[in-house]
Amino acid sequence: MRILLVEDEPRLLRSLARALREEGYAVDTAADGEEGLYMAKNCDYNAVVLDVMLPRLDGWQVLEGLRQHKQTPVLMLTARDAPRDRVRGLDTGADDYLVKPFDLSELLARLRALIRRSAGQARPVLEVGEVLLDTRARLVSHKGKAVTLTPREYAILEYLALHRGEVVTRTELYEHLFDDSDDSLSNLLDVHVFSIRKKLGAELIATRRGVGYCVRA
Amino acid sequence: MVTKSIRWRLQLWLAFLLVCILSGFGVTAYQLHRTNLLRQIDEDLQRRVTALTADVRGIPPHFGGGPKRPQFEPAPGGNPMNDGFGPPPKGPRFEGGRGGPGKRRFEPDGMEGRGFPDTGPERREILISAQTQRLFDDVETNGFYYAVWSRSGSLLKRSTNLPPEVFRPQRSDLAMTIETRTGLERREAYLFTEIGECALAGRSIAGDLAELRGFGWWLLAAGVAVLAVGLGGGWLATSRAIRPIEDIGAAASRISAGNLSERINVTDTDSELGRLAGVLNSTFARLDAAFAQQRQFTADASHELRTPLAVIISEAQSILARERSPAEYRETIETCLETAQQMRRLTESLLELARFDGGQEAIERVPCDLAERARASVELIRPLARRRHIGIECDLAPVETLGDPDRLGQVLTNLLSNAVAYNKDAGRIVVSTRVASGSAVLTVADTGPGIAAEDLPHVFKRFYRADKARARADGHAGLGLAICKAVIEAHGGVIEAASPPGGGAVFTVRLPLR
User: Fold this and answer.
1) Contacts of B391 (CB under 8 A, 6+ apart)
2) CB atoms B306 and A16 under 8 Å
C-alpha cells in the first residue's frame, strides 16, 4: 500500500512517515500543498493523509484539485475541531477526518478502513481459499495455523488479496508498495513472491507471464 | 406591574389630564349655558314685573323706576295705564279693609315714616292692563304667572295659573330693585313698591331645567367620547413610540443569548430612538468584530498548540510500538523535548499577549536611552548574525525616551532576530536611532527579500506568517511582531513595517520623547 503524507510540520511528518513505514506502507511525503497536489495527481496512491493548514495551497484547495482528477481516499488532519470544519471537510470530498492531536493507533485504523473500503472490501478479514488475512493485526494464517510473513511479503499479499480476481501488473505493485526511499534490492518482487509461495502454497499466487500476478477469486 | 410599565403610566397621565380638561370645560360650558338661560328668563321676568308694578301703582312704570326695564315699550296711542282706571299718582285706589294694622307685622322695620306712613288699604282692586295681561298670556308665553300682594301680605291679584305653593317673598331691604328667587322648578322675580305691595312674576322652569339636564348629559357624552378617542389615540401613539424600544429590547436579548450577529431593525433613523438604535447597532458591530477577532485568536492558538501536541503523541506512540535502539529513543526524546520547548514559548507568548489585551501588563516608565538599548540588543544578536555572515551597522544617536528598558530591549531583539532570520546570507542589517519630528525614532533595516505587498498590512497580526513553511520550520508561531506591536503601543508609540522597492524590510518604531 502506498500512501502520500502531506504535512508542513517537519517533525510530525517525520514521525508519521516512520510509523506508517513500520506498518508496511510505502510512504511518500510532501511539505506543502502545491507539492502534495502534484504528487497526488501524478501517482496512484492507496490513500492520502492531508493536513489542512498548509503553505502555498491549503488542504481544502489540494482536496478540490485532486477531486477533479482522482478518487483517491483522503484522510484530513486538522487542528480545527469545530463541527463546521468537519462538515466542510467531508462535503469537499474528504473520506475521513481526524483532529490533532490524534492517537497514532486511530490514524492507522482509519487508514486501513479507508483502503479496505476503496478496494470494495468492508470486512477487516480477507479470505483467499484456505488463507486468512487479518488486516487489523496484519496476521496471516494458513489452514488455521499462523504463518509469519515479512512486512513486505504481507504488503504484497494484502494488495493482491484486495484485488483478487484481477491481474495486478508488476508496475502497479511497484507503485503501490514501494516508496522513493526504498532501496532497489528489496524491490525484487519475484523474490518476495517466491517466499510467499513457499510459506502459503504455490497455487495461491498465479504468475501471468509478461503481465503480472493474480490471486484467484 | 401595570404602574411599572411606561405605556401604562403615560396612559394614566393622559387620562388624568384629559379628565381634568374635559370636566373643566364641561362644567364651564354647563354653567355658562345655565347662566345664560336664567338671565334670559330673568330678563323676561323683569320685564313682566316692571309692567306689573306699573299696573299695580297705576302709573307708568318709569315713575317707580325699576332698575331694569329691558324691552319695555309703552303701548302706542298714549298712556295705556290711564285708560281703564287712571289712578292718581299718589292715590292708588284701595279696596277692602281686611288685614288692617294687625298685619303690619309683616312689614320690615322702618317702613313707617317713609312715603306712606298711613295704613294702606289692605284690599283694593288692581287693574292689569291688557298689554301686561298679554305678557302673562298662558298660550302665547311660556307659562308665566303673576301675583300681587298687599303690604300686609294678602293676595291682591293673581293670574289663574299661579301655582298654589307660591308665597309672598320676604322684603329683604328697602332698595327698589327687582329681586329674583328660585323655587322648586320655578323662577320668580318680584318688586316691592313704595307702599310695600309686592308684585311677582314667575314662571315654571321645569322645561328649561330639563333642557339644561339634556345639555349636561350631552356634554357628558361628548366628554366621554373625546376621552375615549384621546385615550385610544394616546394608546396608539405610545405604542408606536414604544415599539422601537421593544425592538431594541428584543434584539438586545437575542444578542445576550449569544447571537452577536443580530442587529436592531432600524426603520426610522431620524427619531431619537432610531438614532439610539443606530448607535447600539454600531456598538454591537464593534462587539461582534472584537469577539470574532478573539475567536479567531483562540482558534489559531489552539491550532498552534495542537500541532506540537500531535508531534509529541505520535512520536511517543510510534517509539513505544516496539523495541528500539538507544539511539532511536534518544532521537525521539529530543524531538519531544524540542516540541515541548516550542509549546512553552508559544504559551508564554500567548499569556503575554493576553496580559496586554487585559491591560494587566505593567509598563515601567523610566528614562532610558534608546541608542543604549539598541547597542545591547545588537551585541546579543551579533553571534547569531555572524553565523550567517551578516554584518550589523549601527547609526545610533542618543535618544531619551520614557519606557520599560527590558520591554524595549525585547522589541529590539525581536526585530533584530527577524532581520537575521529573513536576511540573505552575508547580508547587512542597519540599526539607527534618531530624533525626528518630535519623536524618538528607531529603524531596523535588512537586506532580505522584503515583505510582499499583500503581506505588509498583516505582518503585525497574530499568527500571521508571510512565509508559512519556513516560519513553521523555525518554530515561530507568528506572534513575535504582534508582541512588539503590543509593547510599543503600551508605550504610546507606533511600529510600522515597510518594504522599499530596492528590497529588504524596514521596521520603524516611533516613541514619545522624554
Assistant:
1) B385, B427, B428, B429
2) no
